Amino acid sequence: MTDRRKKILVVDDDKSIHLATKYVLRDAYDCLSAYDGDEARAVLRSQPVDVVLLDIHMRHEGEGLAYLPRLKEIDPDVDVIVVSANTEIDLATRAIHAGASAYLIKENSAEQLLITIETVLSRREMLRENRHYVRDRTRVLEKNRIIGSSPAVRQLMQDIEKVRRSRANVIILGETGCGKELVA
Question: Looking at the domain assignment, is residue 61 inside a domain?
């Protein structure tokens, strides 16, 4: 991961939750606050945020869940951890289907909060690395392809396809620089 401290946006209408969460996260993360969905949207528009801790019930029942897609519209890459005192599986499932990266019960320990955030950030980093790998491999494959439409090249491509489908071991012979690596 990068050396930049990750930013966590705490979205909850309870000031004591903000204080407790910021206290737990103070050594590892930079914390931002929003007390409702509109404030959260304003923060996301103004600066990059890595993870949003979103209370599912703020002023109104299910308000956090209603704001989840709106937050993802602003930043599709932001990870949202929905936090709730509600232990119903149905609610957790709805949150995940709405785009949450995780669902955390408020009564969980500070350690569980840290583990959940780190897990979400690790998964985010793995996905980022995978996208870079796929992009790099695609560039290599696009750069190193056989070009040509002559009868000899078409026959070569047919022969390569036949061999590719078989389980036979094949040795590719040719002079240096003739493109053996394109066939392999």
Answer: yes
Range of the domain at 172: 145-183
- Identify whether residues 122 and 151 lie together within a single domain: no
**Comparison of pLDDT for 62 and 125, the residue scoring more:** 125
Residue 2 lies in a domain: no
CA distance 144 to 43: 45
Q: CB pairs under 8 A, 24+ apart, for 92-97?
A: 94/65, 95/56, 95/65, 95/68
Contact criterion met (CB below 8 Å) for 97 and 90: no
Given pLDDT bands bounded at 50, 70 and 90, which one contains residue 3? low
**pTM of structure:** 0.70
Q: Burial code of 29-58, b = ≥16 C-beta within 10 A, e = fewer?
A: bebbbbbbbeebbebbeeeebbbbbbbbbb
Classify 165 in phi/psi space as left (phi over 0), alpha (psi -120 to 50) or beta: alpha
